[in-house]
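// run 5 | inverse folding | seed 20
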C-alpha cells in the first residue's frame, strides 16, 4: 500500500490529498458553472426548508475541502469530506424512497438520473480516498510559501479579505 510505496521512495500522500481536492473542485465547478442545473437537481430531492441552505451550503462546503487541502490542512479537509459524503449518502437514500432506484444526480453540474447504488458506490470510493488521506497524514502544501502578513502588510491583507467577503454575495447572487 502507501507504506510500501513510501519505502520504495514514492510518496503517495500528496497524490491522495490532491485527488481529494480535485474531485471536490470538479463538483464545485459543475455547480458554479451550471447553477440552473444544480438548482433543478437539488429541487428534485425535495429537501423542503433545507433546500435553500443546501443550494449555497453544499458548494461552499465542497470548496472548503479544496481550500483546506490547498492550504496544507488535509486532515480537516478529509474529515469535512467524510462528513459531506455521509450527508450526501443519506440524501441519496432519502431520494430513493421518493424516486425509486433512479435518483437525480447533479453532483458535477449535470442533471441526470443514476442508479442509487452507483452513487453510493462512488461515495464509498471517495470516502476511502478521504480516509486514506486522513490516515496517512497526506498533505498538499501548495501554499507552503504562504505566511502571516508582516506589520506593513496587515492593512492590505485585511482590505483584500474584507473585499472578498463583501463581494461574495454579489457573485453568488449573479450565479444563482
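// decoded
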Amino acid at each position: 500500500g502507501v507504506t510500501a510505496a513510501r519505502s520504495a521512495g514514492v510518496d503517495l500522500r500528496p497524490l491522495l490529498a490532491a485527488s481529494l481536492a480535485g474531485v471536490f473542485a470538479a463538483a464545485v465547478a459543475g455547480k458554479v458553472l451550471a447553477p440552473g442545473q444544480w438548482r433543478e437537481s437539488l429541487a428534485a430531492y425535495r429537501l423542503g426548508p433545507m433546500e435553500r441552505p443546501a443550494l449555497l451550503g453544499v458548494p461552499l462546503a465542497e470548496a472548503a475541502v479544496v481550500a483546506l487541502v490547498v492550504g496544507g490542512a488535509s486532515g480537516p479537509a478529509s474529515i469535512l469530506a467524510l462528513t459531506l459524503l455521509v450527508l450526501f449518502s443519506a440524501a441519496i437514500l432519502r431520494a430513493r424512497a421518493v424516486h425509486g432506484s433512479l435518483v437525480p444526480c447533479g453532483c458535477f453540474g449535470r442533471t441526470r438520473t443514476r442508479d442509487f447504488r452507483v452513487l453510493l458506490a462512488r461515495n464509498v470510493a471517495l470516502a476511502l480516498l478521504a480516509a486514506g488521506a486522513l490516515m496517512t497524514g497526506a498533505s498538499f502544501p501548495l501554499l507552503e510559501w504562504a505566511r502571516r502578513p508582516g506589520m506593513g502588510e496587515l492593512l492590505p491583507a485585511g482590505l483584500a479579505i474584507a473585499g472578498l467577503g463583501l463581494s461574495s454575495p454579489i457573485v453568488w447572487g449573479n450565479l444563482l
